[in-house]
Amino acid sequence: MVGVVGHVTAWATFGVTVRAFALMIQRRPLFFNPSTHALTAAVFASAGYYIYQIEQRQYEIIAQRRKELLDKRELRKAMEAKQKAYIEEHHLNTSREGYHI
Known about the structure:
Layout: H1 2-25, H2 34-89
Helix pairs in contact: 1-2
Transmembrane segments: 30-52
Protein name: 11289_t:CDS:1
Keywords: Membrane, Transmembrane, Transmembrane helix
């Protein structure tokens, strides 16, 4: 839960900073119409929450994909071991020395 609070707080702070910077550029008083600061903080906080949710979904997708790749790797190792055992069991010659084209 700290991750959500951190993202939301950071983005809300960024929004208030952007609003203050915009007022400074316009050479207006810093606390001119303070409700716009609250509105900006709310908008940026919701953006921070949305970005946090996107990150969490991406982490889940990455973890799922990693699990799938590890499962495929294990399957491939098992298949290679099975093939090697079959070759050794039946004394198959895998070298190409006897083949002339």
